[in-house]
Write a structure and sequence with these properties.
Helices cover 59% and strands 12% of the residues. It has 167 residues and is mainly α. Helix 1 (14-31) crosses helix 2 and helix 3 packs across helix 4 (73-86). The N and C termini lie far apart (103 Å).
Amino acid sequence: MRHNKKFNHLGRTASHRQAMLANMTISLIMHKRITTTLAKAKALKKYAEPLITKSKEDTTNSRRVVFSYLQDKKAVTELFTVIAQKVADRPGGYTRIIKTGFRAGDNAPMCFIELVDFDENMAKTAKKAKRTRRSSKKSAENAAEAPAAEAPVAEEKADEAPAESAE
């Protein structure tokens, strides 16, 4: 019976699944964003987030535990130095899954999974407005009207100034 065995096996043996998730976690740590299927991304989130939490406490034991999962010195170093500093004040939720559509060959739902604090596009608060033809025409018309509108105001002020000095 399969009672209370709810994780996705992803159509692989246990050793293949463990190796795949470790490799995907290494790629996520090194590249900060990877593209994969939705099922793999959800499995990766459950695998990687406890390792990131473990990296917040930089001790010899926590490094050894994380290394036993990943088996990659460069990834462990990156995790404990760069990533641990960025997520130090975050209580969890280190990754974000964004759906991107469906794969052409088999129509599998695709997404990318990324580390939340490393997304440059989402971190920017003020985005530059993209100019289109229509908006540039409007801005050109507004620019032409603005000097014409300012000129009468200047004349009115000039008229008022001598009147006040005459009094």
